[in-house]
Amino acid sequence: MFSQEQLSATTARDALLVWQTPELTGINRIPPRATLWPYASTADAVADRAPQRKLLDGQWKFKLVPTVEATPRDFMAVSTSDADWATVQVPGLWTMQGFGKPIYTNWKTAFTPAKPPFVPKENETGLYRVQFEVPADWSGKRIVLGFGGVECGCYSVWIDGVAIGLGKDSRLPSEFDVTPYVKAGGKHTLAVQVIRWADTTYIEDQDHWRQAGISRSVYLYATPKTYIHDVFAKATWDVVRGVGKLGVEARVNELPEKGWTVSVRLLDGAGKELLAEPLKGEVPHGLEGHNRPREPIADVTGEVPGALPWSHETPTLYTLVVTLRDKAGNEIDATRTRIGFKTVEIKNRELLINGKMVYIKGVNRHDHHDRTGKVLSREDYLKEIAVLKAHNFNAVRCSHYSNDPLWLDLCDEYGLLVIDEADIETHHHYAMLPHDTRYAFAFLDRCMRMCVRDRNHASIYMWSLGNESGYGPNQDAAAGWLRHADPTRPLHCEGAICKANSDWDRGHAATDVINPMYPSIDSIVDWAKTTKDWRPFIMCEYSHAMGNSNGSLADYWAAIEAHHGLQGGYIWELFDHGLVQKGKSGQERWAYGGDFDEVQHDTNFCCDGLIWPDRTPHPAMQECKRLFQPIAIGADDAANLRFTVRSKYDFITSGHVKIMWTLTVDGKEVSKGELERLDLKPDERRTIALNAKLPPVARGQEVHVNFTLIDTRDVPLVGKDKVMGFVQHAVPVTASLPAVRINRLAAKLSLQDGADVIRVTGGESDVMLDRKTGRLASWRVCGVELLTAGPLGHLWRAPTDNDGIRAWDYKKGIADWRARKALPRWTDAGLDHVVHEVTSITAAARADGAVVITTALAHRGGDVAAAVKDTQELVILADGVLAFSHVFDVPTELNDLPRLGVVAQLPTGFDAMEWLGHGPGESYIDRHIGTPVGRYSSAIRERYVPYIMPQEHGNIFGLRWIAVRRADGVGILASADGLIEGKATLVSDETLTKSWHTDEFTLGNTPWLHLDVRQRGLGTASCGPDTLERYKIHAGQYRLSYRLAALAKADDANAVHRALLG
User: Fold this and answer.
1) What is the pLDDT of residues 794-844, one digit of tens each?
2) Residue 18 maps to which CATH number?
């Protein structure tokens, strides 16, 4: 035992500074164990009835002091009054309850100087007190106090003023035997001192909010004096014979007398026994050779022929009930845990689950809630799993620490493959701490305790030794322990193969997979073609999902599925880690680094997820869903409607998948049907022919066949008859119908070529072009204003996070970062404040009555000499149509532009849009496979995508035409000559660029209409490879042609578009 003086000492002369001593990982903690609760009888364990446990969660008294030394010496005493202390919720973080503040940094330690193992004297310390009562029926029992997790550097515990113990790991339980210090039926005072920074801070250096407080449940439980301490169930699946194999190690706390036994029962979900008789084993007793004490572990083994295997597709679980009996056969203790039969192997560059190579369609996941930080409920977890299952994910990496056992329980139940990761990240001291002997046991301790706690979970298929911690003997020591303690699972250690991604075929002692971060597509393909390594390639992080991101995800998966050894990976990451905060306007927003006035922070780099903090999916999730869907349909002969359906399931057949099909012409459905139900085995293929006739079409019309995949099962958390994916194929057709014609009244046009304005009138049309700007100043039809500012060359887009992280100061940044990011190059070239110079402008009437206005412009960044030349031809036709043609010449100095196109502005009231192109969500050149071509409609306001850092959004790739209308149906059509990109929006690029939060602007009422040759692809360069070269806008000549036409209420936009094309 230790004293308060030892815990509160301020100098080495006084006592050991426990919070700055990495060799010390805990005091008086009981050995680690699985998450088990004691039951009074086998019957109670079978029924999960009345476990001998009591939660101490609820309202606790709390006081925050600025330093460890400021802790009152008697704060833990029973006699101390806490009447004037605050009240906080436990579990709960004080940084989310009005005390101190959360701090976000990516890899830098949150304080300076950062010299392991020392921490600053200014070190917030939280003091907690609560009164609790021990159940009266626990008399004569052993009583344990447990903390599920405490976000901190170090915490110490007292009961009634007596020091109980100390823990240092934030995300694993610390349990203490408090039997001598409490009384059954007695009331006691529990006091906890939580020190925010400690030697452990340097090995918990994860990319997330640095919080503080008691983050997981606090509890008591009671056992008999001789009790089951731990159970390890090795539940494997014999792939050849199709049977379950069960080996159970039940550890008892002591060596009892001869004749004590352990029995094991196994029950299915309905409570049916799977074993004809319980498996039994004797608890060792006495001494073995040379008077050495035996391990008090009872080994029980057997086969379970009636068992079914566990997988992510069939998460079949069984309840294992273990009972300890004395030599007279009396039940002394009982416990239960859920298990699943699963075998993991690595052979021939493939990781096999139950004998099958499974592509890892995974995501990295932190614990996060926008209002409670790292404190989550069962409902929160279920929402996450529902989103992942609905989007066809099959795997999660617990980045970068052991998650709450409840999360693992739910992954077991609903079927997610889990990498369980030790709470180790030394990012700021990457190459140092893996070799630091002072931290050697901490590395081992965290891996050991993670494994012992979690190894009964069926969902866990791999252990990870931590994240971004370099590689050294400390990892090898932990790897050796894990291999011995649990030989049923392979190991994952990114640092072992990293070495700046220069040598992936290294580190065999610590990792059984090649698991780099953010490799390029070319590099993984090259590895697959040239390596002789036997290990599979599973990216631990890739496709960084920061803001409007995940470009080229389809290109990654094309490479993965084409090359043996590439087996998928984990997208970074699931959540945007925004925290709810009221902005200056009083409106709630999601805050990021720096919004809490932190001195050191990494701005919005924490907002890099596939879903918003409230669990709403980003648009990129549709790309994931499409790529990860379990049915593929290839076009054998699309012209004759012949296709091949392939099952991409790993274990189950596809009979529950209903496949509906439609044929569309220009996005309009013309026929539909349902395929016969195909009960395909995994990887089985079936050729089908649609029972349909191709419709007759006019020149230029497009035919698509669309397959919709519907899961007819009632899938837990997802529902019944939900769409699980789609496939779309273009169908080549020969035109047999005459071109669409629409009678538009021609009128004699009048040209007025003035010094300042060129005006063309005729019939119901009135066009005015400003000579100074080279753009239309007005366009009226029937007295209705359709444009208040006509098309003008536009090179800028509000930067995405992949273009460059705006909040980072690139002028002071590392040169390498400036070279790798597009944004600093663009701002250096002045593209964020382009000026438009009119070099010449002419207007003339044509023989056919049309008026042609030719304008030469130069678009340049401020006073930068290099300019994009824009030769614009506007033909005003006699029927009132405006035909634009632009020839853009992009110089080599402006290679790799943000976008290349034009922008126009419409009057107030034009608030609805319709289009033919990819949809319904936003789409980009390198992220559109999840958005099929179709005819869609939306309010313009609904096209806004509220990325936490405002940025480019809402684009439409493969745009054929776009129409914007008023409520009365009057509108304007932009009809493209070929495929372009574009959008209508209620917020300008300028506003988005200068705004750092969503509450800093409101959507307007006057739409901007963008028509682009192209936007630069999205890529993943916020943390990973830049946009692929083929998705960039390089130097060269580009053409953009489109027609603008007025729409009456009765006009069908597509019919007008077809008529304009002729």
Assistant:
1) 999 999 999 999 888 665 656 666 677 999 999 999 999 999 999 999 999
2) 2.60.120.260
Angstrom distance (rounded) from CA 896 to CA 1033: 5
Instruction: State the Cα–Cα distance between residues 933 and 928, nearest whole angstrom.
Output: 9
Answer whether residue 588 is part of any domain: no
* 698 in the same domain as 767: no
**639: Cβ contacts below 8 Å, ≥ 6 apart:** 731, 732, 733
Domain check: are 621 and 636 in the same one? no
Alpha helices in 163-284 (DSSP H): none
pLDDT tens across 179-223, in order?
Answer: 999 999 999 999 999 999 999 999 999 999 999 999 999 999 999
CA 902 to CA 1040: how far, in whole Å? 9
Burial of 372 (0-12, 13-18, 19+ CB in 10 A): buried
362: nearest Cα among 552, 627, 107, 708: 627
| Strand ranges (E), 108-242 | 125-133, 142-147, 150-151, 154-159, 162-167, 174-177, 187-195, 208-210, 213-214, 218-223, 228-238
Share of the chain above pLDDT 70, in %: 96
- Supply 726's token pair: 């789609």
Instruction: Examine the residue annotation and report whether 425 is marked as an active-site residue of this protein.
Output: no
pLDDT digit string (tens) for 747-790? 899 999 999 999 999 989 999 999 999 999 999 999 999 999 99
What is the rounded distance in angstroms from the CA atom of residue 93 to the CA atom of residue 62? 11
pLDDT digits (tens, 9 = 90+) for 921-958: 999 999 999 999 999 999 999 999 999 999 999 999 99
Q: Does residue 334 sit in the same domain as residue 360?
A: no
Report residue 416 as tokens.
């997610």
Tell which of 731, 761, 784 closes a domain.
731
Which ranges in 653-810 belong to alpha helices (H)? none
Count the alpha carbons within 13 Å of 921 in the hemisphere toward its beta carbon: 14
326 shares its domain with 391? no
- The DSSP result for 416-445, as a single string, is -EEEEE-S-B-GGGTTTGGG-GGGHHHHHH
Helix, strand or coil for residue 131? strand
**Global pTM?**
0.96
Tell me if residue 702 is catalytic: no
517 domain residue, yes or no? yes
* Of the candidates 222, 201, 313, 406, the residue with the CA atom closest to the CA atom of residue 653: 313
- Neighbouring-strand partners of residue 249: 232, 299
Q: What total of structural domains would you count in the chain?
A: 5
Q: In sequence order, what are the residues at sequence separation of 6 or more whose Cβ sits closer than 8 angstroms to the Cβ of residue 510?
A: 465, 471, 475, 476, 479, 491, 493, 495, 496
Which range marks the domain in which residue 171 is found? 4-30+57-216
Q: Cα separation of 369 and 381, whole Å? A: 10
DSSP state for residue 273 in the 8-state scheme: B
Beta-bridged to residue 1041, according to DSSP, are 885
Region of 59 on the Ramachandran plot (φ > 0 left; ψ -120 to 50 alpha; else beta) = beta
| CB within 8 Å of 830: residues ≥ 6 apart | 860, 861, 862, 863, 864
Q: Which of 124, 413, 468, 494 is catalytic?
A: 468
| Per-residue pLDDT, 4 | 45
Residue 496 sits in a domain of what CATH number? 3.20.20.80
Last residue of a domain, one of 160, 185, 216: 216
**CATH number for the domain including 669?**
2.60.40.10
Q: Are residues 542 and 633 in the same domain?
A: no
Kindly report which listed range (48-57, 619-628, 722-731) carries the lowest average pLDDT score.
48-57
CA 330 – CA 326 distance, rounded (Å): 6
Q: Would you mind telling me the total number of residues written for the chain in this entry?
A: 1062
Whether residue 330 is found in the same domain as residue 426: no
Q: Which of 541, 573, 623, 914 is catalytic?
A: 541
Tokens of 566: 């590439």
The CB-based long-range contact list for 31-34 (8 Å cut-off, 24+ gap) reads: 31/229, 31/230, 31/452, 32/172, 32/230, 32/448, 32/449, 32/452, 32/453, 33/175, 33/229, 33/230, 33/251, 33/452, 33/453, 34/230, 34/231, 34/232, 34/337, 34/452, 34/453, 34/454, 34/455, 34/456
